[in-house]
Amino acid sequence: MTTARPAGSTVKVAAVQSAATDDRDQNIHRALDGIARAAEAGAKLVCLQELFASLYFCQSEDPALFALAEPFPGPTTDAVAAAARRHRVAVVSPFFERRAPGLFHNSTAVIDEDGRILGVYRKMHIPEDPSFYEKYFFTPGEATALPAAGESVLSQDGFGMFRTRSAAVGPLICWDQWYPEAARIVSLLGAEVLCYPTAIGWLAHEKDELGEAQREAWEIMHRAHAIANGVFVVAANRVGTESSIEFWGNSLICDPFGRVLARGSTSESEVLVAECDLSLIERTRCDWPFLRDRRIDAYRGITSRFLGGRPGSP
Question: What is the domain partition of the chain in residue ranges?
């Protein structure tokens, strides 16, 4: 159960955006440095970018790339857990998971301030687009809580809320960000901060015509999730050009009114930090009672693939 926060219940939240290289150790070092810098700025919750330990490898269907995967817990989560414990900060830490022989996930661990791993969320919505061939690599997953999870809550649909010492976190990953259903369910589980590790960018042949519209749509979706659910939203995206993709950065943190509290640049590696007053969730939901007025008796159609008739039919 999520209780109302008293006025002034603030927590600093951070997003780490950076360029990646083909040097795994260097990528992890950059992430750990970002955690340290966020903690130095007072952050108590840090969101890292999707698959931060490597280049975004899903641009080709190469079976040799499965060698990048690791178990859970594994070397990357161990390194981040040690940093979380050292700096007393909770971390949403993505990684490429080898769950079993031939079974792989795009995953993120949720790690509390004392270094305990509360659980893992395995990306539910898997894209398959030019240069984003994720269906080749990843199986859709679910949230799993570990014994240390405490008051964390899982839904029967596979989503999860993990309660860190500073905030109730709803982890989702990149392509999940286009689905209001995912944001709604995680919010209903009690999440106060939705965290979206992300790897999204422009393809060169589309950028001139569609680039700014794509980036704006991406930001608008995050802000809409915050407004519709009365929660804070953090998205951590990478920067730099990798093969055919120019990652557009623009990591952001926004409040339950959709106001952007911090926004990253298009091209620079940086750590964004914003102060989030968690009591604003209760105030916003009282003023705009979207959850109260939901017609849960009228939404059975949402589980259908399509409700319209055939083209040309009545």
Answer: 10-303
* Percent of the chain whose predicted confidence (pLDDT) is above 70: 96
Q: Mean pLDDT for the chain?
A: 96
Please write the tens of the pLDDT for every residue from 102-161. 999 999 999 999 999 999 999 999 999 999 999 999 999 999 999 988 899 999 999 999
If one counts every other C-beta atom within 10 angstroms of the C-beta of residue 166, the result is 23
- According to DSSP, the β-strands at 245-248 and 201-203 are antiparallel
Reference 169, options 180, 161, 158, 177; nearest CA is 161
Kindly list the catalytic residues: 50, 123, 174
Of 278, 224, 207, nearest to 7 (Cα)? 278
Distance of alpha carbon 63 from alpha carbon 79, whole angstroms: 26
- CATH class of the domain at 10-303: alpha beta
Instruction: Please list, in sequence order, all residues whose beta carbon lies within 8 angstroms of the beta carbon of residue 302, skipping any fewer than 6 positions away.
Output: 181
